[in-house]
Amino acid sequence: MPLPPFDPADPLGIDDLLEPEDLAVRDTVRRWAADRVLPHVAEWYESGELPVIRELARELGGIGALGMSLSGYGCAGATAVQYGLACLELEAADSGIRSLVSVQGSLAMYAIHRYGSEEQKQSWLPRMASGEVIGCFGLTEPDIGSDPAAMRTYAKRDGGDWVLTGRKMWITNGSVAGVAVVWAQTEDGIRGFVVPTDSPGFAAPEIKHKMSLRASVTSELVMDEVRLSADAVLPGVTGLRGPLSCLSHARYGIVWGSMGAARSCFETAVDYAKSREQFGRPIGGFQLTQAKLADMAVELHKGILLAHHLGRRMDAGRLRPEQVSFGKLNNVREAIDICRTARTILGANGISLEYPIMRHATNLESVLTYEGTVEMHQLVLGKALTGLDAFR
Fold first, then answer.
1. Which residue, 380, 307, 369, is CA-closest to 84?
2. Co-location of 152 and 200 in the same domain
3. Final residue in a domain of this structure, among 90, 109, 130
4. Domain identity same for 228 and 246
5. Domain with 52 in it
6. Which residues have a catalytic role annotated?
7. What are the tens digits of pLDDT across the range 2-25?
8. Could you say which of 184, 201, 232 is where a domain stops?
9. Per-residue model confidence as pLDDT tens digits over 272-308
């Protein structure tokens, strides 16, 4: 039997590992991103605004991309691999678009789906799955990042109600959200609260002057004695296990998504190297450029293989948080290196918004930090490898 031809777009034949349903999901999201995001994203990035976020959310709900790995309540019930493929295609367009989907599905919806009451699920999840309601997830605070146990936001009982006070920072979707899942200290430990954003005392001013994730809505959450009914608390979890499990689910999407940004930069570099001529021939014909392209391809497709492996483990119920840390640490770090190398191939053109490379590179600087910094994931793995806790 003759060998199949070498495919520069899939040099390891990873597509052979995908089922027809997986490919259909990937192609649907890729077509949507090509039609609705790529023609406009440079303009959104340059202006620092995402003016059509509500429209995009409804469209994403229409193709089943919001909360897609959850079951019931209008969610698609997709596999982890299918969700990962969607994240890859969304981030190949822009990290801000993938963040919109990740925060909606893997943080806000996941928290309600896993830990919420049946009434909370029925009330919020169908509208969030359709994109009618956008959600956000409030954990990080102005002075509290990697140590969420030290959060200062608190909720106290007042008769049959809860009164919530505090601030959250760097919250994706915050200013456009209809519901916020907010984590707070209580006399019983850290609890999650489902907070309608039209509640008196709740405000979500948008954060401006960002140099990364500019095609994304990022906000502060300010809660000044927000009164909530007794049933606003998520009944299914107490302690940091709740928010950390949500973050692990979202980090899994980043393992795939970061490879989307890397793929966009790699493909741009390959196309440019084949057409840009210097010294009388395309720069892709020079050894140093080919060495760069070869190294980029190796790390890109190793990263996709890693993401696929973790997805299969998640689908089998065998994915550990330490393995997610492994994936996020490796793939985001390698994606940044691929972007920087691609920029060198384009030379000065690499900093222009006519090409996606600098946009992806600056976005990935945020992806590197959010949902666990490099250092935190190194320490997670260090503890797993040695049995010794070096966090404190």
1. 307
2. yes
3. 130
4. no
5. 14-130
6. 371
7. 899 999 999 999 999 999 999 999
8. 232
9. 999 999 999 999 999 999 999 999 999 999 999 999 9
